[in-house]
Predict the structure.
Amino acid sequence: MVSEYLHIADLIRKELDGTISLHERAEIERWLDADPHNADFYRQLTEESDFGRVLDEFRAASRLSDFEDFARRTGIRRTNRLLRLRKRVGVAAAVVLPLALLLTLVSRPDRPSGGDEEPILHRSSTAMLVLSDGRSYSLSDTTGYLPEGTALKVDEESAVLSYRQEPEGEPGLPEKKPVVNRLIVPRGSDYSLELSDGTVVWLGADSEIEYPDIFSDSVREVTLKGLAYFKVARDERHPFIVRTSRSSVRVLGTEFCVSDQNGAVSRITLVSGRVAVRDMHGSDLLLMPGQQVCITAQGSQVTDVETFYYTSWKDGYFVFRENSLREIMEELSEWYDFDYIFSVPELERIEISARLKKYESIDPVLELLGGMDRIAFERDGRTITVVKK
């Protein structure tokens, strides 16, 4: 039930900031009609002025046992408001506690950011498009037709590079053979790519993809380095293949995430449809929705997973599930472009589970992480040192 309330809270936030869809609004209406107590919860949240930020803080406590500790660390007390909520909402204690803490967090005044240090802000770097002849273009100022005849549109605000093909028989681009382009996304950025067949690819930070500007008649094939989420346009006559350093993924039409970043593990996570994977050892694997294959030098293993842990990055969140603090700091450094140091090696091995919004500044992220475990952060310019509390 906690996950249901968090999902509804996300929808309410979208409603408040004007980004909710008609389908999502209808979902809220059905939820309100299902139980009169839901209307009370809805009213409580919509009356709060800082609900969005606090929802992200609340999500950082990933287990029920974290909430008591989170309350103690942040100075939240069991108030009469909590008890009133227990009586009005009438849900199990396991749900009342986190919801009450959420409401208490919303109403507490903002804590000072602390210090006069200049904030470390997200530095969004420009993605680069490299053509087959080696010429490169910054995607902040390119729109229309490239010199070699490729039609594309760059939407700078939403960071999308979109290709299109002229319909057969209409005047426009001259007929041409496919050429392979390369899209490079640097640290501190992500980018979306719409291929000529309608397939959409979300690229994570420090990633690149090679792809033809127009797919051939036989197969659709791309090569990935880094992190990407694929929403493949269905075409049963033309399989879609993603090649990485450790595997090849073959699909007809589906959604999945591929992580082939620097490190010892490559992960392929299936959201919908089916994919066939051939790993670096020559083994063939078939994944079903909700499954993930981890590929290492020792072999491959398929497990059932909660897919949102591995796909929420494309929706603007950091998601960690028992990740080491070193892994977390490495991912944060790629997004905010800073250096980090551990004061003692043992801190690197601390494991944390959290879902955190990609704030413009790293300060609220560090504040939340520091409130969850026995760590603190010291800053010197763009260098962050992790220390014991």
